[in-house]
Design goal:
The protein has 174 residues and is mostly helical. Helix content is 57%, strand content 5%. It has a domain at 51-159. The chain has helices spanning 20-45, 53-57, 64-71, 74-97, 101-118, 140-152, 166-170, and strands at 10-13, 16-19. Strands 1-2 form a two-stranded antiparallel sheet.
């Protein structure tokens, strides 16, 4: 007995196939995280009073000693602030536009995971900075880091992104 259903349209890249719904979900996730990371960076860049010092003072996780070391050196703190703010901007833009997508997703995942390790939501740790709810072990920071790493496994940039055009720019015309 034959089905009258037509096969779902798939987008193919080498050996990778995405159904339209899968691609839309992955692109939506990529753009949403990209926008969040970009906005976090822009809000830091345009605020001349912003510094990571308050966040670093809150560090109770395994990176607490590292945070104290950064705080002990004003020049190092200024460098970390600059790299953090502009790093977030560049990672956000790369995710949105699909340019150097995989390195941006992996670096973004690592950066956000560092935030998580600095201020983990564990029993016995209390923070003065406001949180985004009641969390235990898992919070939005960890979820975003995991999602970014997962996105790096799905090269949507090769279907919808600037990385799609890069190989063709370097191909020799014969």
């Amino acid at each position: 007995m034959r089905s009258n259903r037509r096969p779902k349209k798939c987008f193919t890249m080498r050996r990778i196939q995405y159904r339209k719904s899968q691609l839309i979900f992955l692109l939506t996730l990529r753009f949403a995280i990209g926008w969040h990371v970009l906005y976090e960076g822009i809000s830091k860049v345009i605020n001349p009073q912003w510094t990571s010092a308050d966040f670093l003072h809150e560090s109770r996780g395994i990176l607490a000693g590292f945070s104290e070391w950064i705080l002990s050196n004003p020049n190092l703190l200024a460098t970390v602030d600059l790299l953090n703010a502009w790093g977030l901007v560049l990672i956000g833009l790369a995710l949105i536009f699909g340019f150097l997508f995989r390195p941006a997703a992996i670096i973004g995942s690592i950066l956000i995971f560092i935030y998580y390790l600095s201020v983990p939501p564990l029993v016995g740790y209390e923070y003065t900075l406001p949180s985004d709810g009641s969390n235990l072990i898992i919070n939005r920071t960890l979820i975003e880091a995991i999602a970014l790493f997962g996105l790096a496994l799905f090269p949507t940039n090769r279907i919808f992104g600037l990385d799609y055009f890069i190989p063709s720019l370097f191909k020799r015309k014969t």
